[in-house]
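Memo to structure team: turn this sequence into structure tokens by end of day. - J.P.
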Amino acid sequence: MIISGLLSVYLLPDLWNWLYTNGTAVQALSSVLAVVVGIVTIIVLRITWKAINRQAAAAEEQTKASYALIKAAEEQTKATIETAAAAKEQGRLLALQYEQSLAPLIVARRVFGEPGNGLPMLELKNIGTGVAVDVEVIFYEVEIAATNMIYPSIRFDPSTLGPGETNAIGLPTSSDGFLTIRYRGTDRLERFTVFHIIGTISQKHWVQQGTGFVSLQPATVASNTPGL
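Reply from structure team:
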């Protein structure tokens, strides 16, 4: 109480007098301080902005690096898949090549019996490298698109022909001039040889592949030549 009284009596009048006398200087000093504070604020804000920009740039680079890693992983996965597919296809081709290396191939021709007999015969020869089994003769030209149809046929005797083996039976009759020899290999794939009795048309050879059939190079052996 006493101190406040003393301040009000002795100091405040002097303070007011000083401020009144030096008011312009105080105001100038305040302006300078405001400018300094503003400059400091700008500097701090600029430093903060640069720091934020550096962080953003670092984050962007990190994102780019992550994308690059993801892309590299995708490319590696794609390459792995392509390599596996190529290996699978190569294995399939090797298996097919192996099967075909052991595949039978029957060619047919019309021959005649011993002198004095002269009856026409159907001669079959296996010129392939595998055994032909379940050999039968169909009395028509089989439609490859309709192999599941029931055709009149006879079982060739013997019904098995090894590589290089030849055998003959009496020539069956055919209403359309064609005979079809149906047989299988040890791979159980169905095969067909379409044979024209008179021998004026080249033979056709078909082999099962998947659910369909593919044509093999036709044999050009004439049906009435003296030998194969």
